[in-house]
């Protein structure tokens, strides 16, 4: 029976990074993963993020943006085309090629770092002295390995609406089905206006779908700063034509052969809309399926998350858990950093991860990104703050790109000027947010950003101007 210092269950962005870091630190390391490729005939490392989440969705967003640009923006640049044709199936093919390249890259990294990779469903059997015994079920063929330390990184699954409808990924889709449509649906319904709902709705709207988004919450993007959320809502609805309904109560979902009808209510008024396809995007739940957690006493909370302390330690000795399967934001980069931190803690190091400086990004157009506290959170907590805002409307680089929409907001402490939060909507803010994250990690003030020279003409000048505005000394607004 093979014995390892560290075994990671799950090869998503948390698990594979944890395994690589553990191996770099000198531990004999293995990773168990049950992921399969799109065809279902071969293993595929990388978890949801790489195979049916972050990476493929960004590939499709880019393809759909090119189509939209050719159809609507080229003329402003003096470029005319006789006709624009696109092939949705070809876009899916390109997306799949990117996924295959990156999953193959993880396999190479495992080989390079001497991480032993096992394909199958990993589960706990029990203890053998100081070692945890783990079963690997490879489509019915079972084997057992042992580990001194186990890192659970099994990720999350799409939340279902099983009381109303089952997902078949033909008519009723989850995130995986939404990423594999080869024909543009004339009418597309989306339940949920979170990251997945907005991004997938944006993709298919650009390609020609009539998109309706049904959101149960009365507030749009409640987790985001509401100044930014309201600006986003205006862009998405009035300019892009997404039909976003808030405060929706869904009563029934009836699937026919080629369509699906949703019966719902908004402010007491009842509707019954029929769609060619329906995406269910109501969030995700922790994936502990098949872990055999109960038999070894691995503790979970009332929502199904594995219970951990601030170090990602579970209630079991030398068993750790990271990523979507534990508390905190369900973000790939959060999982990766937790994976690195746990590997280093096993090695006796003392890394630190601050949840308040983890950035959030939504890859719509315009993009949305933030880090730290929102203005609403600061008000609720009674924290006195200063606010500086600046827009992209007068930014030379944004105007040249034809993307002069959006705002950056800097929030800092009224007494110390320490940055408490930065919120953005605009072009490439997924990249601009990194400066704000670094600033907050180093406990910078808004004055620190204001006194740093930012290249001209760049989009980053808008962050510089917002930092100046926090001290009431904006130069261009």
TrEMBL record:
Superkingdom assignment: Bacteria
Biological processes per GO annotation: 2-oxoglutarate metabolic process
Transmembrane segments annotated in the record for this chain: none
Ranges for domain FAD/NAD(P)-binding: 4-339
Keyword set, alphabetical order: Cytoplasm, Disulfide bond, FAD, Flavoprotein, NAD, Nucleotide-binding, Oxidoreductase, Redox-active center
Cofactor remark from the record: Binds 1 FAD per subunit.
Protein localization: Cytoplasm
Enzyme Commission numbers on file: 1.8.1.4
One protein family per Pfam: Pyr_redox_dim
Annotated disulfide bonds: 49-54
Residues reported in the UniProt entry to bind NAD(+): 192-199, 215, 283
Molecular-function annotations in GO: dihydrolipoyl dehydrogenase (NADH) activity; flavin adenine dinucleotide binding
Reactions mediated catalytically: N(6)-[(R)-dihydrolipoyl]-L-lysyl-[protein] + NAD(+) = N(6)-[(R)-lipoyl]-L-lysyl-[protein] + NADH + H(+)
Signal peptide: none
Active site positions, chain numbering: 456 (proton acceptor)
Required cofactor(s): FAD
Domain Pyridine nucleotide-disulphide oxidoreductase dimerisation: 358-467
Coiled-coil positions: none
Binding of FAD, residues: 58, 122, 154-156, 324, 330-333
Presence of keyword Oxidoreductase: yes
Cellular component GO terms, alphabetical: cytoplasm
Misc. remarks from the entry: The active site is a redox-active disulfide bond.
Assigned protein family: Belongs to the class-I pyridine nucleotide-disulfide oxidoreductase family.
Protein name per UniProt: Dihydrolipoyl dehydrogenase
Species of the source: Simonsiella muelleri ATCC 29453
